[in-house]
Fold this protein.
Amino acid sequence: DWDRDGIAELRRVVKIGDKIFENEPADMIPFASWSSIMMPHKHLGLSFGELVKDLQRVKTVMMREMLNNLHRTNNPRTIVGQGVNLDDLLSNRANGIIRTKSMTDLSVEPTQSVIANVIPAMNLIDQQKEVRTGVSRSSMGLDADVLARSTKGAYMGAMEQANQRLELVARNFAEVGLKSLFLKLHQLLLTHMDKADVVKLRGQWVQVNPTEWRERSDMTIHVGIGNGNKEQQMQALMGIINIQKEMLGTGLGGVTVTPNNLYNAVTKLTELSGFRNANKFFQNPAEAPPPQPPKPDPQEEFVKMQAQIEQQKLELKQMEMQMKNATDNRKIDAAIAKDMTELELKYAADVPGAVI
């Protein structure tokens, strides 16, 4: 409460020695920090190097002493008396002769090898390092000796337990460090970016305008190693894809499973397989072109055309018959009318004064 108004405020202070150079209000703390191993009530925690720093010094001393002992064992010092020829002794020729007046004047300093005692001690230090850091030999790769003595399930379970500490560190990085970092980036974009920009997102160039974003602070960090290793995730995804295909084959498939759901599953499976761009193998339903009508079969079109021609021939034949019948009827009517006229005229001639 620098201005004594009863309200605590965030301020940025720059101090060198006992002199304060800057003291001004601030809207955020522009720092995001995290440590491998967090310590209670401390800003800075511990790194993996600090956990094993003392063990590394001890192991360095033991390794140096073991090498010195090996050097002394292979090249021992020689004890000589007054009767030894020093020129012969200093010559390192193979099968060289050393002249001496008495065998008691020439001997080798005894050196006891300590390698058999140092190696178990170094293995003990390695075990302590694995306990402290959680980085074990099992998590570094496939050990043929261990695999030969265990089943696949037991070996994978041991690797999963060995990786739990490393996964905890990764989750700490995500929750404590990356979440805070991206929240601050989000706040800076909302505050200072006043125009749209074009960025590449999921292989596509899209326009991003931070001025249209709503202010949001509820974000979730998803750590990819939180649901087992890659093999387990791929098996789980294959099971999900099989269920989706079965549901698509039923009547409720279009309601419970959509093409986008299936595309998301195969995209994640492709990423776990080691391929970054799933669009090389699968088409996004949202970007797919509209379906085109199927092209007609030429043979079927020829058969339809022949049927239409036959139908037209039949219709023309029927029309021809109808016209012929109509012509015949007109001829009959004309003949009847002619006969009636002739009869009337004859009747009128035979019967004078008759009214027709």
